[in-house]
DNA sequence: CGGATCCAGTTGTAGGATGATATGTATCAC
DNA sequence: GTGATACATATCATCCTACAACTGGATCCG
């Protein structure tokens, strides 16, 4: 747990700050695709840091496919479609409207994933899903432990689809939501404990055991809409009927 | 175009190679979460590079949330759930099975996105979607131009959902698929020109204009299954009925 | 005019030096 | 002996300088 807190409250290192600055400049359109960045020396003078720091910052942006550096010429901004990675700005997560969008994305992914999982799940998957479910209800303290179990439950369902990309994407989105909730609790301590509806989870699990994709999808959709409501986010989804 | 080729055939810089090595070691489980990496000096000796290069490599991994460095102690491997970014290994894209998984993920995202877009699209969105559609059919040469138009068509639909995260995710997945097709064509030159079914696109567009979410979703689903087939990937989706 | 060569600018890599921080050890007072 | 303090060590963070590799243009030469 200490490890997680350390990860969240990570100190802002100089290269990280420089990278964030350049990144925002690119996102905001001040540096258009194809434009050339200032030289490393100019940047190091501008920010008052060593060239080494600038290079580490650029290494980060380059790894994301945001810019491309060519020896002897300079560094250039790439088009957004050429990004090699998806990264979500933690600052943006503090905005409730963005949280709503994130929940919407999560709903899309997980609802379909639940349907897939219902047709493909094997015994091993059901066992680990059940284990997460038990941990969730068994925890006396509603704190971190049961939140972890909740996330594990969702990740295990994603894994049961047999599609590693789906697993990766869902894990990622869930983790972003966890962290944005974490922030929200810091600034708004009245949500001291997070309410988890075990009944909704059980309905999902039952549908998976039954191998019914439509029921699994509907249950998952209802659950995520409910979870969003419980943290104060209203999902404007049109598909709450579920049945088809 | 030269720009894109340069981006794809980018030279392997030393920090990139070191980062890739460490990354593989983490993914393969040789370095478990919580494990401590060798010191920067040890790594620089092991790889025969300067400490500077090692630091740039670590900066990349750290930006992805794959490792966490703590001053005075060392660098530690983080759990996969704590990743701050999604990155897809280009090497993995050369595997047909992975392409199938990627198409499946794409189908999930885009089908639901099309339904959302049908209810939320405004005139501006319809105009840009139509423009992409015209470019697609109008291109004489089936080469890059119309592939670009195809991708733009899908991205504009994603944008019409009004959810920037959905837009980002779909753009990303589409781009990965584009590149994996690019690779496939290099090794298998019999697919010299990519076939694009304009009719399928028109049906999607019509459903969006009509504002019919179910029709849009079904049309999108059918289109992506068709597109996968045309590049030799068979999608094992259970939901080809579409109508609800 | 054409071509080879040189030159200045930029990124890539190397190596060392110093500061900041965490951990363990030794010393000292009591 | 015990506790607190000071010190030593290890490690990452940052800075600095220098040189190598590469590019593009200027210059020079025929």
Automatic annotation (TrEMBL), chains A, B:
The species is Mesorhizobium hawassense
Instruction: Identify the InterPro entries for this entry.
Output: GntR_C, TF_FadR/GntR_C, Tscrpt_reg_HTH_GntR, WH-like_DNA-bd_sf, WH_DNA-bd_sf
Q: Which UniProt keywords apply?
A: DNA-binding, Transcription, Transcription regulation
PROSITE patterns (alphabetical): HTH_GNTR
Q: Name one GO molecular function term.
A: DNA-binding transcription factor activity
Q: Which CDD domains match?
A: WHTH_GntR
Q: Which Gene3D superfamilies match?
A: GntR ligand-binding domain-like, Winged helix-like DNA-binding domain superfamily/Winged helix DNA-binding domain
Q: Where is the HTH gntR-type domain?
A: 12-80
Protein name as catalogued: FadR family transcriptional regulator
Supply the PANTHER family for this chain. Answer: GNTR FAMILY REGULATORY PROTEIN, TRANSCRIPTIONAL REGULATOR, GNTR FAMILY
